Amino acid sequence: MVEIRSSSDELKALKDKMEEYRDNGCRLGWLIDRIGKQVFIYRRNGSIEIKEGSTVTLSGEDVLPDLTMQVNL
């Protein structure tokens, strides 16, 4: 699942939505916040990793093992 924050989105509402996706079985989710220059990585095990910077590299991990991409924030 990928969510991209727009200027009209509240970050808390998007984080809540990502938690809901995970609670419903989503194995990997990326919340891309270009405003805050962060990417929140939601995993099935309940962990949330935060990557920061102007360029972030994302991996599909075990869900999409051949996927790697760079996101310019």
TrEMBL record:
Residue span(s) of domain Putative restriction endonuclease: 1-71
Alphabetized Gene3D superfamilies for the sequence: tt1808, chain A
InterPro entries with a match to the protein in the record: Nuclease_put_TT1808 (IPR012296), Restrct_endonuc-II-like (IPR011335), Uma2 (IPR008538)
CDD domains, per the entry: DUF820-like
Pfam families, sorted: Uma2
Protein name: Putative restriction endonuclease domain-containing protein
Species this protein is from: Fibrisoma limi BUZ 3
